Amino acid sequence: MSGTVSPIGGSTGGGIGMAGGPDARELSRRWADQAAALAALLDTDSSDPAAAEAALVAARSSVTELEATVAAAMTGAGPQPLPPVVVSAPVLGVDAFKAGWVGAILEPGTPRPRIAVAATVDALVETVRQSLAIEVVAIDIPIGLPDSTTRAADALARKALRGKASSVFTTLTRAAYGEPTRDAADPVNRALTGQGVGAQAFGLRAKILEVDAWVRSRPTVRVVEAHPELSFATMAGAPLTAGKKTDEGRVARLAALRAAGLASPSVLSGPGYAADDVLDACAAAWTAARWVNGEARSLPDPPETFSDGIPAAIWV
Description:
By secondary structure, this protein is α/β, with parallel strands linked by helices. It has helices spanning 24-43, 49-74, 121-129, 152-160, 174-177, 182-193, 199-203, 205-216, 228-236, 247-259, 275-292; strands at residues 91-97, 100-107, 110-118, 136-139, 222-226, 298-305, 311-315. The protein has eleven helices and seven strands.
């Protein structure tokens, strides 16, 4: 697999479009403006034939581009969802919430994800493994902390999530996460990477260090990093623009899971965790199922490895 990743899907504005180009609405507005300019030139007695010809050529070009854009969408060249995933082995998708961790369990023959909750990631995984031989755990948390650089995984995920890049924060260095406060971590990270410490990146410090310690203890299960927004974008064929905490976003994510072959999870919320936490865990479980099937790809490919020896990549 190539180490370069193209943006997922086409237009993010809701209209017909192709990756990297204007959508149909933009082209229609451009064509209307050019047609109006051409009409104004032709209506004047002193119109410049050369100017009129140039305006006509521009209008024709816009019409041709608009026709190509619409034709591409009609023939399926636009955003295309993936076919339903096959759950060939038990897997677990995990997402963090303030008081602990929520897990979505997928197993063969059961398309509805079952939900489990625990105070620590270790307890969650071990509890599930008491009754199921989980093959892969996919976690929505950075795994593999850099020493003196940023991570390629974060940069590639932002590039792929056109219109939703802000959902991917830049993972801090291991030394910065070793500091007890954001104020103390900021100069450490700046000295190593030239970048300051974002609120979200440091706000997850305790969760990141918890997973880091657990992974470094060598658990006897395959553990990979997932990013739910990237998982949803991949399964749906384009990033989901509605915020995950909104009613519209929840409906869109449930629809994406349903199209991917997964029924609505057994529960959507509970004490301390909300629907967006559960749906993120389900998206991570979808990625875990793809990993088992050999369908998942890593960003980057191959993963980076820092001094901790842990492969650093987001799988999707």
